[in-house]
Amino acid sequence: MLTALRLANFKAWQETGVIALKPVTMLLGTNSSGKSSLIQSLLLLKQTAHSPDRSMHLNLGADEAHDYFNFGSFNDILKSGTQSPRQFAIEFAFQADPQSRIESGQFACSYGQTTHGAAVIQTLALSTGGHRFRALRREKGAYAIFVNDDALPRAKGRHLAPERSIALSAEAIAVLGHVGAIAEDLSLAIRRELENIVYLGPLRRKPERDYVWNKMTPGQIESDGHRAVDALLASALTRGAQHNAVLDGVSFWLNRMKVADKLEVKQLGRSNRYEIVVHQAGVSANLRDVGIGISQVLPVLTVAYFAPAGSTIILEEPEIHLHPLAQSVLAELFVAMSRARRIQFIVETHSEHLFRRMQTLIARRETSAEQIALFFAEREADGAMLRKLTVDEYGRVSNWPKYFFGDALGETREQARLMFTRQQRQTGQ
């Protein structure tokens, strides 16, 4: 699980400070306030870690088929107006899976620009327990490798350049001697944390009328929701201990949201084609023929059950096209699945209903302020600013930004005033 994030000179953010991440972290804010940039920093590292080129310092996203974002150039990431040194930084901390040899660790990397305009690592620091490993860029692309607070490097050279932003090279690990194995395990743990990130964006595919099942379980659900139905088909058509687990879980939450009683996978004749049937109030219909809200929330619900236990699921606007009750139930989903499957949710949302239900869950003691982190992003003259919302045990927020969700009480007062004024006039007549 990711436990902290910090950005410096990254897009709208001059300095975020250390952002404490929880099992459920919600990011709210005005449009173009920098919320998405917080998410994109992690996806930038993830797509770099997946790069087939080990020498890649930062994968800015030239491959539209496999990358999450095309970040453009180094200058498109660097915060406008940044003076010398022209560098940006990404840092995160994590609590590793219980199976890992590394219990927890920290990643910190700063990036500069070569004379040819490419992004290049300036400083990479990997830490765990009492061990800290650093790779510092020197002249002509050479790197110096330091351990802990050593004044002198263990080695220097171009061959010691870090790999894919997250790992020391094999040559660097070799010169570290007996602590090299720790550095190697730490790099692997960081890679796994990034691999365990699952991202679902705000733009999701419309459903098909029927689907071909190739008798395989998909490797992942893609950022536009593609393969979500494949995961449902595999759940329904593969026998074993997990038979129907994903399908039943998704049906449960659709029912809880009052948008469907259940889903059914139905074979079309004797072919290998299947349709998703939605049952609601005694009526059955193809997924293609029901409201768009069901198909848009379907990947959100599916990924909560399909992602491996211990994953970090990043969601942008999961509430899109849902009515208010369904939006609020998403809060219950996040709390329940974070507890049952050790799933971490980082959610960027504009939904008042989702937020208000999260407050209610805290007041009911179904979760706590220690398990939930709420942040509000807003723009200032010199960039973005992040405010941690302070929530008490009753779900009350003491530092809520004024009028972000509108002024409900003010609207009620104005309606009452206008009604009273109109009644007075009618009485006077």
UniProtKB/TrEMBL annotation:
UniProt-listed InterPro entries: ATPase_AAA_core, Bact_Antivir_Def_Nuclease, DUF3696, P-loop_NTPase, P-loop_UCP034888
Pfam families in the cross-refs: AAA_21, DUF3696
Classification via SUPFAM superfamilies: P-loop containing nucleoside triphosphate hydrolases
Protein name in UniProt: DUF3696 domain-containing protein
Every ATPase AAA-type core domain range: 24-354
Any one GO molecular-function label of the UniProt entry: ATP binding
DUF3696 domain: residues covered: 369-415
